[in-house]
Amino acid sequence: MLFAVPVQALFGQLLIGLINGSFYALLSLGLAIIFGLLNVVNFAHGALYMLGAFVAWFLSEKAGVGYWGALVLAPLAVGIFGAIAERLFLRRLAGLDPLYGLLLTFGLALILQGLFSNWFGSSGMPYEMPERLTGGRALGFMFLPNYRIWVIGVSLVICFGTWAVIERTRLGSWLRAATENAALVSAFGINVPRMITITYALGVALAAFAGVLAAPIYRVSPQMGENLIIVVFAVVVVGGMGSILGSIVTGFSLGILEGLTKVFYPEASNTVIFVVMALVLLVRPAGLFGKQA
Length: 293
What we know:
The protein is 70% helix and 2% strand. It is mostly helical and 293 residues long.
């Protein structure tokens, strides 16, 4: 029964659901951008999420850069890495079946995960949160950690800010036009290959940003993106492949649903997202926000 559930447990799992939903939304947003604008199924997204956390850890432990500096520099570094990968590898697959891009990015994910597993092992390393965000607030019915509030708030700002840039600005219109009619856009003097590189770099930088946010909560580990990427792909499918707004809304919604399921039916918490995916595909194969063929 609903009223038999302790209030502390209910709100605690709701908070955990919002935290997970924040990471689902950021990661699925990057996937949606890359697939929607480049038609690439980026299976390396989980590994790039992990790479962002490791770059932040290296900047903090080896270079003396604090959390705030790493929060900016790590996504930038991973974005540059993504831009190089796009120019060297993915660009050669332009015009081919998307399966080739999936296989290439899957291989890249295995390489990254294998390298970091050999270097650092699988136990994981702690990553300290900034002193300003330590502690929390006692609300009477639950304790609300400051860092969790920060993660949820900044994720909302980044997600909807990215959506606004792509859907409401001239740069976003150029990106969308470049993927639909590259020849026409080139005729206006726009460097289409550069726009494609920027798009891929933006998508992977969002994954790295999520990795930096997650590092103080989940530790820095080579396996931290291994299982998460499967859930994120399910989120993208439910929201609609390539739908940016769908990825954001579905990411937060399914994170909350997963958290509430742990309260009322814990046995189903690991599968509820995939059950929702199956039901949505039966009713609306293009996803909740996707365009029907």
